[in-house]
């Protein structure tokens, strides 16, 4: 890989694709991201259509950054679900409806560049370690909350994949086994989707909430920022649901901190960003109430510093390391 050549970082989500041209070795995220582009994923249109939009996004980002594709050294992608990084295969991504998709090979053939694929939260947490909230930390848990819930682990200064390459899939942990099917896992209780569902159920049981006015009665339009606005307005129903969600997140984080003796938890994703420091503080309190032993209660909970740029920066940096070592 050419020294100093720019890289492409891609955050591939079930709803949106974010692409950035990233300068290796930059000291700040402002200096690192030279240009970018966003596209809708439109997962229902299938794999080929997504590959087309990925290519369009790469070209648009290059144009925005004032570079050409020929200038790019490598491409890194953070994709949702279980990934085999060594093979560049998306083993299973529920929100893309993909199974065993050789994404690195397919995109590499289209763009003529080496492509590295890893889990989306893995690369986001790696970006935080490089330029964000986890700088200088060797042991970190990442919890990203949006449409779903994803996680990542840095252990011994390296992303931890585990034997099955699926370490960090905390959204699928069963946390409430006594609940009915469909409401037992971390993701089924603490994702933005789950939070909205809980609020709508309460409203339909005759509870009052400003959410009804904020979305004009169209609850399908309630997004993370809508919940954040209702929280700012001290809406009682929203406060109740957010506090309950934060307690569950804090308990899950405390369990993992207890098991692995971790000093830092980074919270990211659209829901966390919209709920702000108040939510982070509530999670911190729940962690301190539940971690063991006492010294583990000193573990800090912090918000992502890179926010939307975490996945783009992290994907590019993961690509730089893996292609550079090849």
What does this structure look like?
With 326 residues, the protein is α/β, with parallel strands linked by helices. It folds into two domains: 7-129 and 308-325, Nucleotidyltransferase, domain 5; 136-303, ATPase, nucleotide binding domain (Nucleotidyltransferase, domain 5, 2-Layer Sandwich), CATH 3.30.420. 42% of the residues lie in helices and 21% in strands. Strands 3-2-1-4-8 form a five-stranded mixed β-sheet, sandwiched between helices. It has a five-stranded mixed β-sheet with strand order 11-10-9-12-13, sandwiched between helices. Strands 5-6-7 form a three-stranded antiparallel β-sheet, with helices on one face. Helix 10 (270-290) links the parallel strand 12 and strand 13 (300-303). The longest helix has 25 residues, at 236-260. The chain is globular, with a radius of gyration of 20 Å.
Low-confidence stretches: none
How many runs of DSSP E, i.e. beta strands?
Answer: 13
Radius of gyration: 20 Å
- Order of helical and strand elements: EEHEHEEEEHEHEEEHHHHHEHEH
Question: What is this structure, in a nutshell?
Answer:
The protein is an alpha/beta fold.
Record keyword descriptors for this entry.
Nucleotidyltransferase, domain 5; single chain; 5-stranded mixed beta sheet
